[in-house]
Specification:
Layout lengths: L1 E3 H4 L32 E7 L5 E7 L2 E7 L2 E8 L4 H11 L9 E7 L4 E6 L6 H5 L1 E3 L7 E3 L16 E2 H12 L4 H5 L3 E7 L2 E8 L2 H15 L7 E4 L5 H10 L3 E4 L5 H10 L2 E7 L2 E6 L4 E2 L22
Parallel strand pairs: 4-7, 10-17, 13-14, 14-15
Antiparallel strand pairs: 1-6, 2-3, 4-5, 6-7, 8-9, 11-12, 11-13, 15-16
Helix pairs in contact: 2-6, 6-7, 7-8
């Protein structure tokens, strides 16, 4: 069954299909995870270490084929929520959608598991599609063309970052009901403004989660210069590149860094903060922009039940 972009994505946040945050502790969110969705997980029986039957929830994976006009671009493995945002964000972060492109339609067909993004401009990316870079993402992401292409001339705003914001965000996000807490085996990415989490996306690959954020921002015309991107995944080169291409000046994570990711962050002026666990964090790029307005000794120790596997590495 097909639906068009205009039928699902609207500016007022009341479009069909959005999981809106209505609980008191989720009041900051425009979009929050829906861990109880029967479409996103499946109950599976297994045998535990004691030889007893164990029934757990596991995350679903579905293929999603993305077209740009008449050209098939990629098939991504995804949990299947927000397919239009994923397609828009993927194409935007690959440089296949230009900032001045007029998007005429985005059509999603659930039966065929396809999204077709249509633009007023005729497009052809045969040469770009021939050059693929396999990324280090846990879901085996793919980047088309030169990974550094498009970063030339990127100038990120040098915004101050209060450490109190970082502590608030970590506490709020870690306590947010999520697919990770329900079933594990998934990454989360959250678009934030100061100490408020706004849009929380999850997927089997952190790249997909970031692309969903990018697609939401594109569809809503959301500004990037005053935002923070929080991710549960590693701060690798492609994560830094995508954040910079989106125009977001701050990237923070519970997990660690790669050397190339740090190098690129320093080149483009991205504030890069990792290993955020309780009161601890490490800033490897943009430390001069940190405003230390919170005493780390007053930050509560993180509850074990909210710790992610990524925080242990």
């Amino acid at each position: 069954m097909a639906r068009s972009y205009g039928e699902r994505v609207t500016c007022n946040g009341h479009a069909r299909g959005l999981q809106l945050a209505t609980e008191t502790d989720l009041s900051d969110y425009i979009i929050a995870p829906d861990p109880k969705s029967t479409r996103l997980t499946r109950a599976v029986e297994g045998i535990d270490q004691n030889g007893e039957t164990s029934r757990i929830s596991v995350v679903e994976e579905r293929p999603l084929t993305i077209f740009l006009n008449a050209q098939e671009i990629v098939t991504a493995m995804t949990i299947g929520d927000y397919p239009e945002y994923l397609a828009l964000g993927f194409l935007r972060n690959q440089g296949m959608l230009r900032p001045d492109d007029e998007i005429t339609r985005v059509d999603y067909d659930d039966d065929l598991e396809t999204v077709v993004v249509r633009t007023a401009r005729e497009t052809s990316y045969e040469d770009k599609l021939r050059k693929k870079t396999r990324t280090s993402g846990c879901a085996v992401g793919t980047v088309f063309g030169d990974m550094m292409e498009g970063l030339e001339g990127v100038t990120l705003p040098q915004v101050p970052v209060r450490t109190s914001w970082l502590y608030d965000l970590a506490a709020k996000i870690n306590r947010t009901p999520s697919l990770y807490l329900e079933a594990g085996a998934i990454h989360g990415t959250v678009l934030c403004q100061q100490n408020r989490p706004l849009v929380y996306m999850e997927d089997v690959g952190r790249h997909n989660a970031v692309d969903k954020i990018a697609g939401w921002m594109l569809s809503e015309g959301e500004t990037a210069g005053d935002k923070i991107l929080y991710t549960t995944g590693r701060l690798t080169s492609e994560m830094v590149i995508k954040t910079a291409m989106m125009g977001i000046p701050v990237l923070a994570s519970r997990s660690g860094f790669t050397a190339w990711g740090v190098e690129i962050a320093r080149e483009v002026g991205l504030t890069l903060i990792g290993r955020m666990r309780g009161h601890r964090f490490v800033c490897l790029s943009g430390a001069d922009r940190l405003v230390r307005d919170a005493d780390p000794s007053t930050v509560p120790v993180e509850d074990k039940k909210h710790r992610r596997k990524s925080a242990e590495g």
